[in-house]
Design goal:
Blueprint (H helix, E strand, L loop, with lengths): L1 H44 L2 H32 L1 H12 L5 H24 L14 E2 L14 E2 L3 E5 L15 E5 L19 E3 L6 H4 L3 H14 L10 E5 L4 H12 L3 E7 L3 H7 L3 E5 L19 H11 L3 E6 L8 H4 L3 E9 L12 H21 L13 H12 L7 E5 L4 H9 L6 E4 L3
Parallel strand pairs: 6-7, 6-9, 7-8, 9-10, 11-12
Antiparallel strand pairs: 1-2, 3-4, 4-5
Protein name: Enoyl reductase (ER) domain-containing protein
Organism: Callosobruchus maculatus (Southern cowpea weevil)
Pfam family, one: ADH_N
């Protein structure tokens, strides 16, 4: 045991000796490099080029200091009221008459006023920002060619009070109660404040409220357009047999009332819940549709309940009647024109108020680009010539149609049909109700 302790202490002593030797050598090397670095720095400090740099830097600092002192002395000299008075006397003379003082003050006043006016006219005006509620679509479902037009404000019609008008507006004034309808390609109307051209704005009927009036502008314009396309009016509607698919839709409610007032024989389709309403509107004959699936109060992503084609066709065959005009106002039965053609008279016609398929919907990237430029160039050319641009055939969406609807409402020929009124935060519930079979007439969103 003693031998192990002796050998361990001997090895420890050897390690201490080696460590001391290494430390001394490292110290010597460090001192050597420090001395070499010091010598190099001294050599650089006394170098001719470095001496020249120091001299120029010193001269620059002295020049800056002298310039600052000179500026300070000038400021103190000219800031002295006595010196300022003497300088003014040397320039303008020692004697000032009242006339001189008058012209001097007038010049200062006029010059200052002109300067102030110029400054105010050229000042930067901050943009006026107004925040408001709006219901917008922020993305499309599925593959789309472009997203540059997003977000899109929804809504095709609205009612409200005019808060401001443009310089060229002639028919309307601030404070007028109006209703509005816009085409599909325009930004929508589900917003607290909307900016629209005068041609899409008409005065609201005085005998109905804002929420009731909101059910008519777009649907009523489509209804009058369909009747015009069919060539039906007050003078020739009597005894004509008209089939309206979707008598409880917003457009259908307008068509049933107008045709009933014009003494036409109206047959319409609707679900069981809407029978009392359709009868009250004036339908002479009702085809009751059967729902193929149960509906609840949740949002429905598909097109809603679909009726089997044979059911409606069978009811029409049982009636064994031919119609002068068949008007499709919704796609509740998903029937094509060929299914209805055998129920038309020889000179009968089928009209749809549903949005037509656009040629741009089936365009690829290349053809879509060419079509968009064709529309832009055509619009520019017609604008230069002062001609109206009606590429999408929305001529019926104008104040002339709105004024005609207003006349029908005020005369009592046309009643509004409002099913439910929702707040903006309930938009999904509103759309779900509108797509369900329980919807009758119009569903309204109010921003009050």
């Amino acid at each position: 045991m003693d031998e192990i302790v002796f050998r361990s202490s001997q090895k420890l002593d050897n390690f201490q000796i080696q460590a001391s030797i290494v430390a001394n050598k490292a110290k010597d090397v460090f001192v050597l490099y420090v001395e070499k670095g010091r010598a190099v720095l001294l050599q650089l400090w006394h170098n001719d080029a470095f001496e020249e740099i120091k001299h120029k830097l010193s001269e620059s600092i002295l020049k800056i200091i002298s310039t600052a002192k000179e500026i300070k002395s000038h400021i103190l000299y000219y800031a002295d009221p006595q010196e300022m008075y003497l300088a003014l006397l040397s320039v303008f003379g020692k004697e000032w008459t009242r006339r001189d003082l008058f012209f001097a003050c007038a010049g200062l006043l006029i010059g200052g006023s002109l300067g102030l006016m110029i400054g105010l006219s050229y000042r930067r005006t901050e943009p006026f920002v107004r925040y408001m509620q709006a219901i917008q679509c922020t993305n499309y479902l599925g593959t789309q060619q472009s997203k540059s037009d997003l977000p899109v404000t929804l809504g095709r019609d609205c009612t409200g009070i005019i808060t401001d008008v443009g310089s060229k507006v002639q028919r309307l004034e601030v404070g007028d109660e109006v209703w509005v309808t816009v085409p599909f390609w325009s930004q929508g109307t589900m917003c607290q404040t909307v900016l629209v051209p005068e041609k899409w704005v008409g005065r609201k009927p005085k005998n109905i409220g804002f929420e009731s009036a909101c059910s008519l502008p777009y649907s009523g314009s489509l209804a009058l357009s369909a009747l015009g396309e069919a060539g039906i009016g007050p003078s020739n509607a009597r005894k004509k047999r008209i089939l309206i698919q979707g008598g409880c839709s917003p457009v259908g409610c307008v068509l049933v009332q107008l045709l009933n007032h014009w003494k036409a024989e109206v047959t319409t389709t609707c679900y069981k819940r809407a029978i009392p309403v359709v009868k009250a509107l004036g339908a002479a004959d009702i085809i009751v549709l059967e729902e193929s699936e149960a509906i609840n109060d949740t949002f429905v992503e598909d097109d809603g309940p679909q009726m089997s084609i044979p059911s409606l066709i069978k009811q029409l065959e049982v009636k064994n009647e031919l119609y002068d005009v068949i008007i499709k106002t919704n796609d509740e039965c998903d029937l094509e024109n060929k299914h209805f053609s055998k129920f038309l008279k020889t000179d009968g016609t089928i009209i749809s108020t549903l949005p037509p398929a656009l040629s741009s919907d089936s365009c690829g990237a290349g053809s879509g680009f060419i079509l968009s430029w064709y529309i832009k160039l055509k619009y520019k050319l017609l604008s230069m010539l002062g001609l109206p641009f009606n590429y999408f055939d929305e001529t019926h969406l104008c104040y002339v149609t709105l004024d005609k609807l207003s006349e029908y409402v005020e005369d009592g020929y046309l009643q509004t049909v409002v099913d439910k009124v929702y707040q903006p935060h309930d938009i999904e519930m509103a759309i779900g109700h509108m797509q369900s079979s329980r919807s009758i007439g119009s569903t309204i969103i109010t921003f009050r």
